[in-house]
Amino acid sequence: MDFHTHAAQYLNAFESDMKRDFHLIPNADFGGRRFPLFASYVHEDTSTLIMKNGKSVRSYEFCYFDVCECLNESVVGEYCAVLDNMAAQYVPWSEPSHGFSMLSMIVLTAGTPDRATQKVIKKYKHEETRKRPEDGYGWCSARLCVVDLSDGTCRVNTHGRALANRVKLTVSKVK
Which residues is 153 bridged to in the sheet? Predict the structure, then answer.
């Protein structure tokens, strides 16, 4: 089976797993690029333990999926730039009910990235916290997960560990 057919099976599995909770957009454009899948999720927590000033707190997740046959350091840098731009465009900082936003990028690739590329993946970090009304509210964090379709191995940045655990559940369904 060729790489692109295999990757399409994985994307279909992710879409199937996520369709219950996430708003899914196939072939989504962002920053001059087209991604095969975009998913967004908003959760409103009204428990009395987490309410801010008597109001509910909202959490958000925004996730792009891409397929990249030949991953290298510069391509990973481009994915990191997309995540950084997502923080500027998607995080609703001005909403007082904003608790947190998770920005995710899942990249399906053919083969293990070289050591230098793995290092760039691991070192990527984007984290913001805002506490003042003039700056905004809440925090956001970016997660990067690269999946080697040849063996299902996930390479992640620090915040991507939890995402990798979720990704592995979907990956295990595709053979």
Answer: 148
